[in-house]
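Kindly inspect what follows.
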Amino acid sequence: MTSLADADAEEFVAPSRPRPRRGVPLRDTGPLLALIAIVVVFSLLSSDFRAIGNLQNIMDAAAILAVATCGVTFVLMMGSIDLSVPGVMGASAIAVALLVENNRNDNDFGLLGILLAVLLASTLGGLSGLALVTLKVPSFMTTLGVSAVGLGIATLMFSGVQPNISDNLLDSLAVSRFLGLAYSTWIAVVCVLIGWLIQRYSRLGRYARAIGGAEEVLALSGVRVAPYKVAVFTLAGTFYGLAGVLVTSQLSAGLVQAGRGYDFAAITAAVVGGTLLTGGRGGVLHSAVGVLIVTVLTNGLVQVGVSPYWQGGVQGFIVVAAVAAAVFPQRRRNQVTK
């Protein structure tokens, strides 16, 4: 039986508007059509781009960003911003490197070490959520502080000596392949699937979207919003922690800066895929398309020989265009530029 709160969560986007017609809205298909167009253009411009090996490389390159973007997406759906990714990934990367077989100590916890590193990241994510609901300050401030905490923990564990891993299980995630793709890529696919299932079928996913669309309505319907905010940030931290583990597997070493740049890259991918910064619209599948757009664009520009000096500008232009296209239908709602 559907509760009043659940009903409100499902109707939060535009309760005063009539239900949309059946079919997939253009705004949802736009990023996918853009991805197809980019792939077609680069395939025509470069034979190397359309090679099977290069397509496999694109999927492998997108894996870590896809995992991190799953976490960012849930936070964005709430209308919040998460800048804790570098610190959380860094703490997870150093922790897992020191917990599995390595050159710094006698630890050899294997899978348990991986789980403990992800648990540390989940705890840091939960700390972001607790700081948000208790301090009542903007999320970008609290998460920036938690990122600093994570980097501090990582630096203390690093102790000036880089831990190199020799654990077979962790190494295999980046080296071993199944159906032509690295194990880490399949892990990313599973993360996207799990994220979509949580978003689509769980109360946490529905309420995360509802908080971003109309938090006041959800609160008036009797839902305690604060615990769900903490839960969303904890879930996001879990994804960041797994991304940190995958970076360590890829580099065969733990680095404090393992998550450097992934915060803005994940936010960019999510927004390009159609997840709004203002919350209430988008989702994991949208963001996964955004990850592929960003990765294909980067790979394609290299394949067609575009100078690295121009690549950043081209990518930036496309990102701005994508954000403008996503926000344009919402221009009346977003009267204030923040």
